[in-house]
Amino acid sequence: MNTMSRSAYFDNAKFILIFLVVFGHTISPYRTDSDGVLSIYHFIFIFHMPVFILLAGYFSKNFKKKGYYKKIFTKVVVPYLIFQTVYTFYYNFIYDDQSFTLQYLVPRWAMWFLLSLIFWKLLLPLFARFSMWISMPVSIGLGLLVGFVDVNGMDKILSLSRMLVFFPFFLLGYYLSQHQNFLGKLLTWKSRLASAVVLVVALTGSYYFLNDTSYTDMLYGTNIYNQPGEFMMRVLHYTISIIVSFAFMALIPTQRFLFTGIGQRSLYVYLLHGFVIKWFFTTKYAQNLHTSGDFVMLTLLSILITMVLGSRIVDAVITVFKLTFKFIVTRNWSRLSFKKRRVS
To answer: Given a cut of 70, is residue 338 above it in pLDDT?
Structure first.
């Protein structure tokens, strides 16, 4: 694959994935209305966050370069602190509930991904010292063992359960980045044909075997083993998620489309879509959606939210905000430094 097709491939993947994130969050309150909706919801959760996290690991290969930890702070820690704060006040406003207090160790809703990303990036240099055949089993072992730790609030504080359960996918992405030819092997016509079959089987299996809400926490990565067999369920979940994730990746097109550029701005969609969706859920209209026609409307709404929040207009507004924020911070810092020099 040439550089242009590789870029289009990853941008297309991130666009589809961020749409599935928005779509999954949009249909979440309605997933128990029918077995079909619940099955689709569970099918999406088999692979959409694993692949998203895998790609995050794939592009985290520059940890040996200078400025790696500074970028973690400026590009992950700062956005997390800002949006964790803003979402807390936003929830207080739209729900008229003052119980939402500032808790930076307990991520709000989708903010678990940013908080986990901080720790994944910090853990990467340690695990990358060893070969894939050592680090991957250790990371998977941690993801399996955390299910035995039954501590009150374990799934909330630092989002520790999710962090460890999904860490193997991040680590796998890093190791795949060391093998530049893996995409060439993945995107053959035979692989694509087999992958299409895998996804059809997975969707069908979701309808017949994952149409119960008891599987939701397992797919979230937050379940504690309360019954015999749940440990093996997570082992099976890892196996199926990896297979379905690669099947999904094999079907991503390498051509550029009108929506391809939105993939470059997928983080904006991730950070901002909660403001729209959480407000939408408070409306009377949203509270009376139950039919199959409503499901189509929710799909269209998810597409609209993804397209708008990933547009160049939103990108331009955020760029202006970032530059203004940077100017204010650096200007105040330079003034402080100047005063210190004058005093000294």
So the answer is: no
